[in-house]
Amino acid sequence: MHPRQSGMSRRQLLRRSAVGAAGLSAAGALAGCENTTTPIGAADAAGEVSKAAAELVVPKPLGPAGLPLPRSDNAVTWAITDDNKPIADGVKPEVGPLRIYNYADYVDPATVKKFQQKFNAKVQVATYNSSDEAIAKIASGAVSFDLIMGLSGSNMVDLIARRLLKPLNHSYLPNLEKNIWPELVDPFYDRGARYTVPYVVWMDGIGWRNDKVKEDIATMDVPWDIFWQAQAYRGQVGILDDRRDALSMPMQRDAMRRDVRPDLNTEDEAVVDKAQRDLSALSAICNPKITITDYQTLPEGKTVLHHSWSGDVLGGVFYYRPKNVPPSALSFWGPVQNGVVQNDFFCVGRTATSPALAHQFINFFLDERNAYANFVDFTGYTPPQKNIDADTLLKRNLIPKSLTQAIVRPDQFAANQELLQLSVQGQRFWDDAWSKFKVG
Amino acid sequence: MGGSRWTWRLLALPGVAWLSVFFLVALYAVLAVAFGNQDTLSQPVPFWNPLDWNVGYVLEMLKNIWHGGQFLTVSLRTIEFVTIAVVLSLLVGYPVAYFTARHAGRWKGLVLVGLILPLWINYLMRMLAWINLLAPDGLGTRALHTFGIEKLFLTLGLLGAPGGWLNGEPTTVILALVYGYLPFFILPLFVAIDRIDARQIEAARDLGASPLSGFLRVTLPLSVPGILAGIVLIALPMFGDYYTADLVSSSTQTNMIGNQIDEFMRQGSQKVTGAALTLLLSVFLLVLMFYYLRTTRRAGTSAQTA
To answer: Does domain B68-267 have CATH number 1.20.1290.10?
Structure first.
């Protein structure tokens, strides 16, 4: 039973906790202890709703601080407040340094160098390991960044609720409308791209070594099944070390088998628990490694079958592949529909000291040639550019046919689902399930 | 004499202050978070005043353990891994420490340097080196195969497949823990054995004890404080270790309690749960520490009596 539902009175709790908690701290110090795991202010966060709304509207879960959770059927326009306006038009780029906060190895140093030369400004890139780490560090105020890269719709509400972003001035971003897929110029999680601009897109799929895995995964009825049939590859199988991506994989498999559309942002505890049990079953079948190093382990052959981000498989081919492994030895399959896609974006920090330069950096990376160089020379993550597609790369002999699916297409992006921020309670279900899975 | 006593007390002051600030304050911060709550942005809100403490998260953790949940599984696995690793360290480390202290003669200094040498290299780098050595075509894997050690492990069921040392094997994690922490076990043990008065052993021999009996009845009991110090030195960090299992395995089957804490603290929305888990681990280690202190005090008292 949840502690909050224990039904113990304060007096009962005090009596019982005196013994149990004595080993943890002085019993006397606990005399006034509360017993709850309800977040502070959770009741207020839901906000007041009118009686009519309560009766006539099916309630949707609310996000952190009671903000709406953007969904493809629930687009959100974030307000621009008086105390946090975009920069004015025509501001000369600052001298810098431009302080960027990004995932490690997620931007091409050579393209950054080109930007530095063009704007005669210094760029400093600091890195984070997870989006939670990034948000916690920015929110702490210990450091301020001009530009934040790599966060996505799964962080959008947090970023807004904590007031960490500066609204954008689109007059500095002509390349946005000119080059970017129309559906991402005005995304549902940030109508009007007021705070964010797409950087790269990617999808979840299966990366494998076709010279070591005998099954033709792409032609299987339900390709995800391969993980539950991978006894022969025991110890050489990988699952993404990310709770949302990993747990949504068995959900996709279930939906694909039943030919239905899954809700990969579900807050149904039973669905999340089922996904956890399915994922846990893999331990006995193939004892998977839970990692995000597939960009290295697949080309090196240390893993032969991996739940992968599309960009990592391409990045592995472009950058990490040993000379004796041909690109055609790697394959990638991603679902045409009902799978996971994600758009990692650029955003400007609220306390940016070089906001005009940050805008210029974004526009520079939205330029087709620069986006292309960043893609094929380094990251492997697809820029959502109108003129960069799998055919271009095939023609230029940059990728083999076995990897064409790793280039995300606009129609595929639309037919799949982004992993988005959940309510506090929903996130808790996913966290609990992940914790259970991780202990094996 | 009085002046000298005060001088020493004053000299100890910076160290005591350092420990107070960086240990006690940090410990209290963990307590305040574990007995705190989280805001609607899922960020921890520490409750600094003990009168306000919220026991909900700690109780939830205890209930999970009581009902055989994932925290019990991971705790038992951690205890199992650490116990085996400590026993192996003792089996491997004692002869080394004994040899160095009693038989290395003029090579003692050199052997000691050899023991400390691995510590010159960063722990992470040493583990990363093993990842290459134990890869299916790695030098270490080939050597283990050539010398029949791989076959032995396969026969004993301690390895799942030939060349599969990095396939998420508990055996590899335990051996990596032993490798990583062994020098910290040997050094205090060496000091303890080195300090044993050789005349006591000679007296035992003069009174008719065989070499084995002399060792079992004199050397071994006198080296117990060193053994305990070594165990404490390696067991405490092993219990909190998370990167060893991460580096050489990454499997859910080898996840240790440190991995769970890392998971909660670095990602997701349950940092308070992470703090509660940290607290429970600390309490467990505190119990071990008290046992160590009691045993060493007893040993000290009996030595004085003798």
So the answer is: no
